[in-house]
Design goal:
The complex is a heterodimer.
Chain A: E1 4-9, H1 13-25, E2 28-33, H2 36-43, E3 50-53, H3 62-70, E4 80-84, H4 89-98, E5 102-105, H5 110-120
Parallel strand pairs in A: 1-2, 1-3, 3-4, 4-5
Chain B: H1 3-12, H2 15-59, H3 65-139, H4 145-242, H5 245-271, H6 285-294, H7 299-308, E1 321-323
Classes of the chains: A alpha/beta, B mainly alpha.
């Protein structure tokens, strides 16, 4: 997966660090943001191959972020994975309706995450 | 509310924001610590992976890289030495051929010496002839004078032939000595070259064998070190991932902090004290618990509350990974 770029959105610095660690080892360049609004700002003038976002964040939560992301033509088909401690079925359905590609419950397993990336990232 | 309860609540009320603040700072400190530990672990994992890459670059993909290279270098060195030795053997053979030719030359020179013996004999005979002719010429007086001159010339030529023969004999003698010495030198050189080269070849061969074995041991060591570094990198990665507990703990403690703030606002309203965020109206305990449950973001929290309230855990939890 060399030469790919991923945007990681999470209000937890440590979680961003761990996700970035995993993605970097898989050959991704990683761009980080602390909430949905920051994530949208990071996407200005930049195409990414993957977005991984938390659900509950200050300023702009993950669902709002995905909805706005999907409204942008260049991000309409970008794989977006929710990475959250939330595992309620109703929340997952909200994520799916917002346009998420998949849902991963924290804590994540790096090998499992990379397997998922192998399926969703072209 | 009776006065005693009012007093207790009023005096304890300021404690709640303090506790909430303490917990909030604890969350920040733990996150800061985890980020630092995580960063250090990542650098360690990076260095371990660099070590793996360096070791693999040395030993090659098959794990035998430089050892194989050392073996082929040793084989090339042996082959070169064999070629060198073969050339030396050919040189030695050529030297021996030259020695034989020199011996033939020596024999030919001895043949020339024998011819010179004949020349000497002829010179002696001629001188004697000249002497007799001079004696006979003197017996004829003036008439024999001219014949006497011829006789002396013959005698002189005989002496000259004898001197020349002696000079050639000495030159041949010296030439024979030189040829003989050269022949000995060539013979010695021929035998020394091959025997020393063979000894050198055996020494280099032994050194190459030692080097090859050392290379194999080095490659084995590097492979073991590489495997160890790779395992270390994996262990570090697992340790990094284990630090994810901090995010869950931070969220749960954060929800407790929120609950403490809610409790503070509710109790402040009950005792008529102003609170940050405004007062909360009195609510039924079920409503308070439902409101608290709505802040949860993970099944563990909901399960914990359900257990505390003697209820069954929610059933709408799904698996950890789902692609839509």
């Amino acid at each position: 997966m060399a030469d790919k770029t991923a945007l990681v959105v999470d209000d937890s610095v440590s979680m961003r660090q761990m996700v970035a660690f995993t993605l970097t080892q898989a050959g991704f360049d990683v761009v980080e943001a602390g909430n949905g609004a920051e994530g949208l700002a990071r996407l200005e003038g930049r195409r990414v191959d993957l977005v991984i976002t938390d659900l509950n964040m200050p300023v702009m939560d993950g669902l709002t972020f995905i909805r706005q992301l999907r409204g942008r033509p260049e991000s309409r088909f970008t794989p977006v994975l929710m990475l959250t401690t939330e595992s309620q079925l109703s929340r997952k359905q909200e994520g799916k309706a917002a346009g998420a590609t998949g849902w991963i419950v924290k804590p994540f397993n790096p090998e499992q995450l990379l397997q998922v990336l192998g399926k969703v990232v072209r | 509310m009776n006065d005693r309860l009012q007093t207790v609540v009023t005096t304890r009320l300021p404690v709640l924001p303090v506790l909430a603040s303490q917990l909030g700072e604890t969350i920040e400190q733990v996150e800061h610590g985890v980020v630092e530990v995580c960063g250090n672990f990542q650098r360690m994992a990076g260095r371990a992976r660099e070590s793996v890459a360096s070791a693999r670059a040395v030993v090659g993909g098959d794990g035998r890289g430089d050892a194989g290279g050392m073996q082929s270098a040793a084989a090339v060195a042996r082959q070169t030495l064999d070629h060198l030795l073969a050339r030396l053997r050919r040189s030695s053979e050529r030297s021996l051929q030259i020695v034989e030719q020199m011996q033939t030359l020596e024999q030919n020179l001895e043949g020339v010496t024998r011819i010179l013996d004949d020349v000497d004999r002829m010179a002696r005979g001629t001188r004697l002839l000249g002497l007799n002719a001079a004696i006979e010429a003197s017996r004829f007086g003036a008439e024999g004078k001219a014949f006497g001159i011829v006789a002396k010339e013959i005698e002189e030529m005989a002496r000259h032939s004898s001197r020349t023969s002696t000079g050639i004999r000495e030159a041949i003698k010296k030439l024979c000595a030189d040829v003989s010495r050269l022949s000995s030198d060539f013979r010695a050189l021929a035998s020394t070259d091959t025997s020393e080269a063979e000894a050198s070849r055996q020494e280099v061969d032994a050194a190459m064998t030692t080097l090859t074995m050392a290379g194999e041991r080095m490659a084995d060591g590097l492979v073991a070190a590489s495997d160890g570094a790779e395992e270390l990198a994996r262990d570090i990665s697992r340790a990094v991932m284990a630090l994810q507990f901090q995010d869950a703990v931070s969220q749960r403690v954060g929800h407790v902090v929120d609950a403490l703030h809610q409790m503070h606002r509710a109790l402040a309203a009950a005792v008529g004290v102003e609170a940050e965020g405004g007062s909360l109206p009195v609510a039924a305990s079920e409503e308070v618990l439902r409101s608290l449950g709505a802040t949860y973001t993970m099944s563990a929290e909901r399960d914990a509350q359900a257990r505390a309230c003697g209820e069954a855990a929610a059933a709408d939890e799904a698996g950890s990974v789902e692609l839509f």
